[in-house]
Design goal:
single chain, alpha/beta, five-stranded parallel beta sheet, 5 strands
């Protein structure tokens, strides 16, 4: 789906709604992800996720990632109650997707400073909010993979 298609989808389906946007790899869904996504959804009417493509995850996380391919990750996210729509992006950051979607609220996990969140300039420039949500210690895909591999 092109960014123009994403923009058209949001304008058609979420017009006059408070749209929250977040992004990530969501390689192996865990409790921390679900807590975060539920918190994000509670901030608005609709939650849109920008999902890193397989190639993007590989560039960011290394050759052994993603564990789950983008189609499987997309399916899992789209079937969560808190998620309204998922768009896959190929770049390392969702900047162009955020520009197309123009969310009212942009969020990332608490390990991100607000001014470091990609797209903060777009959202604040449009009068929206950018928030760093709670980060649940002990929940991470990297730690989960290490535990599965017997390294922790």
């Amino acid at each position: 789906m092109s960014y123009e298609d994403a923009k058209d989808y949001v304008n058609k389906h979420f017009k006059d709604k408070k749209v929250v946007f977040t992004n990530g790899c969501f390689d192996i869904l865990h409790r921390g992800h679900l807590m975060y996504l539920n918190e994000a959804r509670a901030l608005g009417d609709e939650l849109i996720i920008g999902l890193n493509s397989d190639a993007s995850v590989k560039r960011l996380k290394g050759d052994d990632r993603p564990v789950n391919n983008e189609d499987d990750r997309l399916y899992m996210l789209e079937n969560l109650k808190s998620v309204s729509k998922v768009f896959i992006f190929e770049e390392d950051t969702p900047y162009d997707l955020i520009k197309a979607v123009e969310p009212n609220i942009l969020v990332k996990g608490g390990d991100w400073a607000v001014d470091q969140i990609v797209g903060h300039d777009i959202v604040t420039g449009n009068g929206g909010k950018v928030l760093s949500l709670n980060f649940e210690d002990g929940y991470s895909t990297t730690n989960l993979i290490s535990r599965i591999q017997g390294r922790s």
